[in-house]
Write a structure and sequence with these properties.
The protein is an all-alpha fold and about 425 residues long. It has a single domain, classed as MFS general substrate transporter like domains (Growth Hormone, Chain: A). It has helices at about 10-40, 45-50, 55-85, 90-110, 115-120, 120-150, 155-185, 190-195, 195-200, 205-215, 220-230, 235-240, 245-260, 270-275, 280-305, 310-320, 325-330, 335-355, 360-365, 370-385, 390-400, 400-420. The two termini are about 15 Å apart.
């Protein structure tokens, strides 16, 4: 019986199984980054293709509404799929089913006929596909974080968690590179007409590769031990609600953190259009900012690899990120490619560091009986408000000074995040390994 994973000598063959489990979680997060940013990297083209142009600025806002719908759908996915698959059948099974639905529905966005072809059915179909993609995406974080954290020793969870979290940034980098390559291949006119659709369709490739990794990987030892000891609960969601002393602060923390994430990483593609950075500079700016963010998340994992006081570290990083928010906004909001890219790269670096400890922090604070459900729900519940960030910022741009509004948004979200952290309980600092509880 495994009492403490950190005390077990892992055989070489099992080490390869562990790597597959980690890659299985990382691959899902890569697809999440790819699909989320795919929608945003073509947002202006998508708005022109799928929505009536007669609506003016509301065309863009309604297109961004798809992001909000997908974010809300993630909560349903993490609750239902986490409850009925992740915490009953297994983390691996949850991730296998989720990646199939996630990749297929993401690719389907590229197949939706344009508004000129089918009228209002076009935006309706986009919304429907985005909602279904969101349901399956909602299961990714809880299942992936649980599988990875339950498969590695205590002393490796921070750095492994940072690697898993970096999957999103890797997907972001990949989709921007794909979009740049497709535009070069098709030419600007053909890319705007139909080439952009391949940005979504190509999502099937990382989806299939991740599915293969998950198929040959194994279940986490913690879940296998639960199965052998018949500790699997009939109602994981009910067990999750009993942990509301951590669930509620976690939701508040994630609301602030994901609003920040939407108002920065997800906003950068739209912001480049607002300030006038176009052509290849548009892609180069996004690639550079995101590459620096990857360095940030890896740096966080390495710097704090042995630190078990994750809440305290995240609060310090949260303050370091939040305090200069207005400075980033006012300096970065520039038509200069160099200034725009440099300032927001610095912002992205420190924001990514905040995310580096997140998988371990959330996973270790919830019971193994409802971990997949609870981690997914706490994470994705934050996306309900966070998913509105792009709509809010776009509206603010047209009714007030965007730089002022954006700064205030980031400060409010930062305070919410810090309050959630302040009221959280960090079970990972306990002597006993909470991954087995």
């Amino acid at each position: 019986m495994v009492e403490n994973l950190s005390e077990v000598e892992v055989p070489d063959n099992d080490k390869w199984d562990t790597r597959k489990q980690i890659l299985a979680a990382w691959g899902g997060w890569l697809l999440d980054g790819y699909s989320t940013i795919a929608y945003l990297v073509v947002i202006f083209i998508l708005a022109a293709s799928m929505f009536p142009s007669s609506l003016g600025i509301w065309t863009l806002i309604l297109t961004l509404g798809g992001v909000s719908l997908g974010a809300a759908a993630r909560v349903a996915g993490s609750t239902v799929l986490g409850n009925y698959i992740g915490d009953k059948i297994g983390r691996k099974s949850l991730l296998t089913w989720s990646i199939v639905g996630f990749s297929v529905f993401t690719a389907s966005i590229g197949l939706v006929p344009s508004y000129d072809s089918i009228g209002l059915f076009s935006p309706v179909l986009v919304y429907i596909v985005v909602i279904f993609a969101g349901v399956f995406a909602g299961a990714e974080y809880g299942g992936g974080a649980s599988l990875a954290m339950e498969s590695v020793p205590k002393e490796k969870r921070n750095i492994v968690g940072a690697f898993v979290q970096s999957g999103f940034g890797t997907g972001y980098f990949l989709v921007v590179l794909v979009a740049l390559s497709l535009e070069s291949f098709f030419g600007q006119a053909n890319y705007d007409a139909y080439g952009w659709r391949w940005v979504f369709i190509i999502a099937l490739i990382p989806g299939l590769l991740t599915l293969l990794i998950r198929y040959i990987s194994h279940e986490s030892p913690v879940f296998e031990e639960m199965h052998r000891k018949k500790e699997i609960t009939r109602t994981p969601a009910k067990d999750m609600l009993k942990q509301r002393t951590f669930l509620l602060p976690a939701i508040l923390m994630m609301t602030g953190l994901l609003f920040i994430n939407q108002a920065t990483f997800s906003f950068y593609p739209e912001l480049t259009g607002f300030v006038g950075i176009t052509g290849n500079n548009y892609f180069y700016a996004l690639l550079t900012i995101n590459f620096i963010s990857l360095i940030g998340v890896w740096t966080g994992g390495i710097l704090f690899s042995n630190n078990l006081r994750r809440r305290n570290v995240m609060m310090i990083l949260g303050v370091i990120f939040t305090v200069p928010s207005a400075l980033y906004v006012y300096l970065g909001y520039s038509t200069s490619f160099v200034q725009f890219t440099t300032v927001f790269s610095i912002q992205a670096f420190f924001e990514a560091m905040m995310f580096s400890l997140l998988p371990a922090f959330l996973s270790l604070n919830f019971s193994k009986r409802s971990r997949s459900t609870a981690v997914g729900v706490s994470y994705n519940s934050g996306a309900v408000v966070g998913g509105l960030a792009l709509v809010i910022l776009t509206l603010q741009k047209h009714v007030m000074d965007l730089k002022l509004a954006w700064s205030l948004d980031l400060y409010i979200a930062g305070i919410a995040m810090l309050l959630g952290l302040y009221f959280s309980v960090d079970r990972s600092t306990q002597k006993e390994d909470s991954i087995n509880e």
